[in-house]
Write a structure and sequence with these properties.
The protein is mainly alpha-helical. The protein contains 19 helices and no strands. It has one domain: MFS general substrate transporter like domains (Growth Hormone, Chain: A).
Length: 501
């Protein structure tokens, strides 16, 4: 059962609450930054390390790893408290960041990104769960709106920092920037968020976590390798698909028997939980799948620098900032949320349809308007899915439900980046053919040494390869719209719990 309503924290705790929120915002910035900071550097990274066919895995490895561990972090945070769990998460994230900066091969970088994701998954889940600990439900929309703004700011800071470091220093430095931010966040959080001192023995659902990890990893491999590295009907793809299905079935069986299930199946009986999870899946797939390939279009098809390509993504952030702020205030004032994902998914679908019309001659103003439309839609959704779920579930399942909701968004992003990456490289390779030796070295530097005819041909091939991605993202947004129409609305209540739990 839900915990009884209680008054908001006393005024003397306001300072520590603000420090907690500031520290958590920094942690969320770290995690979200590393989903975007590599985007403008991807062409340069591929040109340096080789392996165009592995381009999407620089993003996918991080998202997939963070997705796999998210439910585990949520459960451990619920069972043992979030303070120490956050310290572990940050430690893994910073170690992975350091190794990414030292990478001298694509394989090393992808493995380091996976380690980084093992920490990043905890940052997402625990940051959002701590909000549920220290902020009353009716006010969480405002804070989630702030966090959505942090996420959107990272979508600009990430590409800008990535582009600037690539041009001024080297792409290795885009990962080292995490270290001082991480140290600052840990210091502030450790000071403000005090432990309760309670320790209770529980049974962790390790077998469930393992089954879910295998299921998600193999499913991502199927979407990434199918139709590109291997035929869809090949033994390798069919074997991976069978293993994925078997692992999912085993996971469901384990969850029905586990005393402390990593993902309680009873949550799926709640309309708010499964509806927001599906919306999160669609939005995550559309967002990560589409945004990952925009810098390639800008740098290769339009010929702009990495820094300029980061600047050209600012309109999307403006849209997210505007709508997330309005959405947070709307929820805080009315206690309602159902209308917001309906508006958000509609604008996302419209933005992606408009993006499907871009070509090498598209004016910057039009491109900005299309991106702002898409961003406005995303900003309407970000504060809703977490706030609605945290308001609907019992206190003891707060972290687990938050993690599960994030799981679906990350799974959507991981699958979309993998699938869209395979689609993009396949179409690009078919369009270019043997005209230009591009494999492993397509990037801004490569273009400088080519004749104009070759540059024009490659630019057209990139445009041709990216259009289907936008159409697929639009379809995902429409799916999210359909689910939004059947989302139930539970009025946001003003409840909180003691700090540090």
């Amino acid at each position: 059962m839900s915990s009884a309503p209680s008054v908001a924290p006393p005024s003397e705790e306001t300072g520590s609450t603000r420090l907690i929120i500031g520290s958590i915002g920094t942690l969320l910035l770290l995690a979200s930054l590393d989903q975007t900071i590599v985007s403008t550097a991807l062409p340069t990274i591929v040109a340096d390390l080789g392996g165009l066919e592995h381009l999407s895995w620089v993003v996918t490895a991080y998202i997939l790893a963070s997705t796999i561990v998210a439910p585990l972090y949520g459960k451990i945070g619920d069972l043992y408290g979030r303070r120490n769990t956050i310290f572990v998460s940050v430690g893994l994230f910073l170690l992975g960041s350091a190794l990414c900066g030292l990478a001298n091969s694509m394989t090393f970088l992808i493995l380091a990104r996976a380690l980084q994701g093992l920490g990043g998954g905890g940052l997402f889940v625990l940051a959002l769960s701590v909000v549920g600990d220290v902020i009353p439900a009716k006010d969480r929309g405002k804070v989630q709106g702030i966090f959505a703004a942090v996420f959107s700011v990272s979508s600009v800071i990430g590409p800008l920092i990535g582009g600037w470091f690539v041009e001024a220093f080297s792409w290795h430095w885009i990962f080292y920037i995490n270290i001082p931010l991480g140290a600052l966040a840990v210091l502030g959080f450790g000071i403000a968020f005090k432990p309760t001192g309670r320790r209770v023995k529980h049974a962790i659902d390790w077998w469930g976590a393992l089954a879910l990890s295998v299921a998600l990893a193999t499913l991502t491999l199927v979407t990434s390798l199918g139709g590109s590295s291997f035929d869809w009907a090949s033994p390798e793809i069919l074997g991976l698909a069978a293993l994925s299905l078997a692992s999912f079935a085993l996971f469901v069986f384990i969850e029905t028997k586990a005393s402390e299930p990593i993902l309680p199946l009873g949550l799926f009986k709640m309309n708010v939980f499964w509806a927001t999870s599906l919306i999160g899946f669609a939005v995550g797939a559309a967002m990560f799948g589409a945004i990952t390939f925009l810098p390639i279009y800008l740098q290769i098809a339009k010929g702009v620098t990495p820094t300029v390509s980061g600047l050209m993504l600012i309109p999307m952030t403006f849209g997210i900032l505007t709508s997330s702020t309005v959405a947070g205030r709307y929820m805080g004032k009315t206690g309602k949320y159902r209308l917001l994902p309906i508006i958000g998914t509609s604008f996302m679908a419209l933005g992606m349809v408009l993006m499907s019309t871009i070509d090498t001659q598209t004016h910057a103003a039009l491109f900005s308007a299309y991106l702002a439309t898409f961003g406005f839609g995303m900003g309407c959704i970000f504060p809703v899915v977490t706030t609605a779920v945290q308001n609907a579930v019992p206190r003891e399942q707060l972290g687990t439900a938050t993690a599960a909701g994030l799981l679906f968004r990350q799974v959507g992003g991981s699958l979309a980046v993998a699938a869209f990456g395979a689609l993009f490289t396949s179409r690009l390779g078919a369009a270019i053919g043997g005209s230009v030796e591009y494999s492993g070295e397509i990037g801004p530097q490569m273009l400088h040494g080519l004749p104009e005819e070759a540059k024009t041909m490659i630019a057209g091939a990139v445009v041709n390869a990216i259009h289907p991605i936008f159409w697929a993202a639009a379809g995902l947004a429409v799916f999210g719209l359909i689910i939004s129409l059947i989302l139930e609305e539970i009025p946001l209540i003003n409840r909180t719990v003691p700090k540090g739990e």
